[in-house]
């Protein structure tokens, strides 16, 4: 077990299987020393635990927890191409999408769920640039979607 996966386990979490693509794309691709994940939904055992708009059917706190799941799914996607999460030199960028009710403006707080998880798991290597964007709707009526770019060590 890698040190990163040991930290995930220490947090009481399990690195999930990679979420299968919903369309014509790969969960993650490597280009040089970078791995780019596709947008990761908060799938748990093949299902969304909740659907709807944040600020309407889904609370901001629920959505923050879902963003944590998205980040964990993103780490699984990174591992699928990098082979070992200990190769992560740093998280470079996180982009989070929040399916938002018309008057909801708390997107940064929601995506903090993903950012905080990456920090808990990777420490200083998890500090990243980020965008948090409100959108009208996401695939499968998911409340949150997160994509991650990481830099790998040369090993």
UniProtKB/TrEMBL annotation:
Q: Which InterPro entries match?
A: Endoribo_LPSP/chorism_mut-like, RutC-like_sf
Domain (Endoribonuclease L-PSP/chorismate mutase-like) ranges:
6-147
Q: CDD domains under this entry? A: YjgF_YER057c_UK114_like_1
Pfam families, A to Z: YjgF_endoribonc
Q: Gene3D superfamilies, alphabetically? A: RutC-like
Extract the PANTHER family matched here: ENDORIBONUCLEASE L-PSP_CHORISMATE MUTASE-LIKE DOMAIN-CONTAINING PROTEIN, ENDORIBONUCLEASE-RELATED
Q: Write the protein's name.
A: RidA family protein
